[in-house]
Write a structure and sequence with these properties.
Elements lengths: L1 E8 L2 E8 L10 E7 L9 H13 L2 E5 L16 H16 L4 E11 L1 H12 L3 E7 L5 H9 L3 H18 L4 E3 H4 L17 E3 H9 L14 E6 L8 H9 L4 E6 L12 H14 L14
Parallel strand pairs: 3-4, 3-5, 5-6, 6-9, 9-10
Antiparallel strand pairs: 1-2, 2-4, 7-8
Helix pairs in contact: 2-3, 4-7, 5-7
């Protein structure tokens, strides 16, 4: 059962959907997850819809929404500013805490790629988030871009500089292609869905460059964190998740997967789903208390 709705975030109306698990008793409250979409995407992306359905099957409430400037939400289309997405996610939490079938003390956040970075940062900042799942995420925008662009990294830095000069000269944003910001190999571009943002202001790239979720991850403990990444990721370097794991407190688990790529939730990889299911049962179960914590990561 799914309800579509809107909620306000910093004066903008954002489009959302909340789906409920089967078998809810009248007045019963369940734990929930807010699932964040990736870079310039929407709540209809495979790596949002697939985990939402999985969470519903496991007994959780799931909320997904379009960030400002994305999908059906208000805001300047294509303008994606990391800290504004953090604000949108916190406002989504405020809405979901008031839902009649949600336990307001047991709401987690989950995201892929850009959404994973926002998930980690937001959970570190806002103690209302009871758990965090990051898939193919990144913790340091500068080193992420250096890894993504490789020998073209100087050209990327020059684009940022040109964007700053353009704004000073004209007072307006310089628009660039999403693939000039995040190069995605041609064989993965099918995951870029309808209504995705293809042109973006260069300030989006600058905000990502400056964004450091790795500085926030240590603040999440003792709330549980699950970090996942493909062992070979064509989009975001695997080292980004490894570096976040080094900075995380306990209990944090990290899993690196072979046989999948950047859009791991959309690829219906059975092992990814098995790991998430097992982790939830141990650290964020639908009913009862989580398992007693063990020592270390």
């Amino acid at each position: 059962m799914e309800e579509t709705l809107t909620f306000m975030s910093d004066g903008l109306k954002l489009s959302a959907a909340i789906s409920l698990p089967e078998g809810l008793a009248p007045g019963e409250k369940r734990p929930a997850f807010i699932i964040l979409h990736g870079f310039g995407s929407t709540k209809k992306a495979g790596n949002v819809v697939t985990p939402a359905a999985m969470l519903n099957r496991l007994g959780y409430v799931a909320m997904r929404f379009d960030m400002r400037g994305c999908g059906d939400s208000e805001g300047e289309h294509g303008r994606l500013i990391c800290l504004e997405q953090v604000s949108d996610t916190r406002n989504a939490m405020t809405l979901l805490q008031g839902h009649p079938h949600v336990d307001p003390a047991r709401i987690g956040v989950m995201g892929s790629s850009f959404g994973a970075a926002v998930s980690v940062y937001t959970a570190g900042l806002d103690e209302r988030f009871a758990a965090c799942v990051s898939a193919s995420g990144w913790g340091n925008g500068a080193t992420k871009f250096e890894g993504q662009h490789g020998e073209n990294f100087p050209a990327f830095l020059a684009m940022l500089e040109e964007g700053r000069a353009h704004r000073e000269r004209t007072g307006e944003s310089m628009m660039v292609s999403r693939y000039d910001i995040v190069p995605i190999p041609a064989h993965l571009r099918g995951h870029v869905i309808e209504k995705s943002s293809m042109q973006m202001p260069v300030e989006t790239a600058q905000s990502m460059y400056d964004f450091r979720a790795e500085d926030m991850i240590g603040r999440i403990a003792p709330r549980p964190v699950l970090l996942m990444h493909s062992s070979i990721d064509s989009v975001t370097p695997t080292s980004q998740t490894i570096e976040m794991f080094k900075r995380a407190g306990s209990p944090t688990e990290m899993h690196l997967f072979s046989g999948t790529d950047h859009f791991m939730f959309a690829e219906h990889n059975l092992r990814v789903h098995e790991v998430v299911t097992s982790w939830l049962a141990n650290f964020f179960p639908v009913h009862g208390e989580p398992a007693a914590p063990s020592h270390g990561h």
